[in-house]
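INFO  loader      accepted 1 record
INFO  loader      residues=398
INFO  predictor   begin
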Amino acid sequence: MDSNGRDSDGTARKPDKDDKKARPSGRPADDDDGAAAFGVSFGVGAPQPADPAASGGPDVNVPSGEAASLGFDPNHGVTGNIPFADTQIPVPVGDQVVPVKAVLGLTLKGWAAVGGVVLAGLIGVSVANADDDTGPGPGTGSASETDDFSIEPTDDWGSGETEDTSDSVEPDPVADAAVGDCFYVSGDITDVEVDIESTYCGAGAFEVIDIVEGTNDLGVCDADVYSDQSVTSTVTARVLCMAYIPIDGDTAYRAQTGECVYGPNDYSSAWTTTSCDTGSFRVLERYEGQSDPNACANDAYGERSRTYAATDSYFDVTLCLQIVYPDDIGYAEQYTCMVLYEDDTFAFADSCDTANVRVVGRTSDYDASGFCDGYGWSTWSSPEFPEHSYTVCWEWYY
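INFO  predictor   done
INFO  writer      dumping tokens
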């Protein structure tokens, strides 16, 4: 048998790619000889070749003979938490930051809304709940007095001086806002009134991503999957649709199931959505309203969790991820039946009857050919995520 897996008589042990049958990705084949334990090992950098010294897929070695039985070395998924920013940097409006009372309209994406929206101060407050038919209306308390402006009458032949008793009106940020502006929201989102301030577009802020003119209906933002919060004003017929910023430059926070993300190997840097190339991380599950790594199973190879924690748990997100390995052997458990093709790639077999190789062991170490002790092996890694490395040992199977 030569190094490409053929016997000396020329009989191929590896089928051509055209013989490959449709199969669900990531499914181990049934096998009565034993069940593998679960574990996690992985390693990847920016979507790039697995082997740092190579330009292609994993290194594959064809066994030249039999060897002793191997053990099994599983690792489990990596979890972490992204802390909410400790401080906010307000941006002055004129000489000072102008606080404006507001009621929030939340785009809850399947949950009941907590409240409606609108500016207070001396402008007047209206509240619209997303779970009822209440529209913006007159506010109560001090806000209800905001429409009364009066000037004391004077004698035309008098001093000409008038006494202005009108209340001073705070600026209306809804009227002045533009797409790309950011606001910081302080207070509990379940409160009727909270403070909003113009601020730097960084962690913890809300960025205006759309403005709908001619309406005070907070529901106009519901169709935008990126809108987390909507705000309107009693004196301006427009609605601001705003998106929460967990980390400056981070887009992975928005990733949905089936999409792929990537970023530095830490939990404070921004990650971004990307194509699902080898080395990226595919989103298996997305949980909103919680920042809990235990929400993810993390019981299969290449899995990890990424969590986002905000000051208000409503905006928390947990992403359950799995690395995109070069081929199926990266996900294979011990005793998994597989098909090794002519291009040295592995795929899960439909059954052990159609397999030509079987996994006999694996380790989370890269290039650990000695661990396989004469068996065939496939290895893959990346400097950026060495914890997801693997060397998988296999034998011919008939």
